[in-house]
Structure formats: structure tokens, C-alpha cells
Amino acid sequence: MASQTYPVPEPSSLHLYDYKGSPCAARIRRACALKGIPLKTTQIDLFNSGQDTTHFRSLNPNGLVPVLATSYADGRPDLIVTQSVSILEFLEESFPNHRKLLPGPNDMAGRYKVRDLVLMLCADLQPPINKRVRELVQETGGDLNKYMETMFNTVLDAYETIVSKNEGEFSVGNEVTLADVCLVPMAAFALRQTGALTRWPKIDAIAKCCKEMEEFGA
């Protein structure tokens, strides 16, 4: 039996619950900017318990940003997406006629390389260095600076090894992808933590290349 395909409806509006200092939320703002998708934002102040309001917890019981709320003009139920990687995939699938940030099925090697790099940053590095974990390290008497240095070095060293094999300007080839969308805010975080990105010259070059693009100011 031949497989059937179904059109993915394009939302009529997107509302991002955001925090300007969050690398996770920055991924979504920049992906939308690159795709030319209008985005309404509401700031959630994570340092003044903005994530603990009844309304926000009703959207995301885990109390983290980003949260993307969608509306549809045809009356179908609104959708709430609460993980940044899921949101990035949602944007790719829901806006197929906009700029693509994930290589297509005809480039399976590139497609899964991008996904690997995204998850290195978002699954291997982001969770251990988020605000909750940093606070726990300090509360339990750990050396926060040493801990952060170890986390960044472990994952970014591996990322550097992989992308150094790519002769293109970006993480995968010569086109910006979801990997770069996730890398730039993490590189900025690493720069604040370490003072320089000289340990990772290819990452530094990619970040600088991205920052020349207006959309990365989002």
C-alpha cells in the first residue's frame, strides 16, 4: 500500500514565553527570525519566580522556558510545546515554505549530523549547566567554576572535533542550520564563563560568521 502524506497546518500565530538570558529560548527567537516567522513574546523572569505563577505552570508544569503556544485560524485546538528541540522541529514541519534549517531527506548524512550536533548541545551540555543545577552545585559546596569548566570542555571539545572536519563556514556545510542556531547562544555562554573561545577556534569562527547575520541579533 502506498504511503499517504498529510499537510501540516500552518499556525496563525505563535506566542513564545521567553527569558532573554536563556540559551534555550534564544534558539527559538533566532530560528523564527531566520525563517521570517512573526513571533509574539512574553518575558518570564526566572530570577524573580516568574516561572512559578499559576498561569505559567499551567502551560509548563516543569517551570522552564521556552514555551511555545500556537493558535490556528481553522479552529483546531491550540498547541503547547515545552522543549526547545521539539519547538525547532515543530517550526520546520509547520512552515515548510519558509527557510529550511534542517537538510532534507535527500541529504541524510547532513540531516542527521545536524540532529547529532543539536542534541550534543541541548541534551549533553544544556541540562548540566542550567540554573537549577548550578544552584545545587553551590548549595552542596561544590566548586561551581571547576564544574562549569569541565562541562563546557567535555562537550565543546567534542563539538569542535566534529565541526573541524567540515570545510564550510557553518557547523554543517555552507548553510546555517539548527546546529548553528543552538551553538551561538551556547558559545556566548561559554565566552562569559571562560573569557575566550580560543580553545575552540572552529566554534569561534562559526559563531562570528553567524553574528554577521542580522537574524542572530534576535
SSE topology:
Layout: E1 13-18, H1 23-35, E2 40-43, H2 54-59, E3 67-71, E4 79-81, H3 84-94, H4 108-129, H5 131-139, H6 144-163, H7 178-194, H8 201-211
Parallel strand pairs: 1-2
Antiparallel strand pairs: 1-3, 3-4
Helix pairs in contact: 1-3, 1-7, 4-6, 4-7, 7-8
Give a description of the structure.
The protein is built from 8 helices and 4 strands; from the N terminus they run βαβαββαααααα. With 218 residues, the protein is α+β, with helices and mostly antiparallel strands. The chain has 2 domains: 13-94, Glutaredoxin; 108-216, Glutathione S-transferase Yfyf (Class Pi), Chain A, domain 2. Helix 4 runs parallel beside helix 7 (178-194). The longest helix is centred in the middle third of the chain and has 22 residues, at 108-129. The model is unreliable at 1-5 (pLDDT under 50). GO terms for molecular function: glutathione transferase activity; maleylacetoacetate isomerase activity. InterPro entries: Glutathione-S-Trfase_C-like (IPR010987), Glutathione-S-Trfase_C_sf (IPR036282), Glutathione_S-Trfase (IPR040079), Glutathione_S-Trfase_N (IPR004045), GST_C (IPR004046), Thioredoxin-like_sf (IPR036249).
Quick structural gist:
By secondary structure, this protein is an alpha+beta fold. It contains eight helices and four strands; from the N terminus they run βαβαββαααααα. Residues 12-99 form the GST N-terminal domain.
